[in-house]
Amino acid sequence: LQTLGMVVTFATVHRVSLAWTRYWEALTSVHCMYSKWGDAFMQFATFCACDLEKLKSFDGIDVESKISKLEIAHSDAQKYFSILSAIAASEIYDGDVQEMDARLHTGRRSGQITRR
Predict the structure, then answer these.
(1) Which has fewest Cβ within 10 Å: 19, 87, 108, 116?
(2) How far apart are CA 95 and CA 28, in angstroms?
(3) pTM value?
(4) Cα R_g (the chain), whole angstroms
């Protein structure tokens, strides 16, 4: 009986360890994804800021339209990166749950899954 208890304990600890490792691996990947998106936006924002300063030193009719277009592009990029972040967070939070529910009803193992 003691041997069975040790085997069950070892199996439980091993599974928890695997789950914990997968959790931290996923968290690291999400952090890396947001970091790369932040880097990409900051590079674009820096380009816009530097180009705006350069354009403000020039004179002409065409310069004003270029400045306006650049400001609109910066504003749009900020909006789209925010939307991208929100969609990704929503997909991470809700996407897997919906997929697992779909697998429950269509999968070949649907009879083996118990629900409380």
Answers:
(1) 116
(2) 19
(3) 0.67
(4) 26
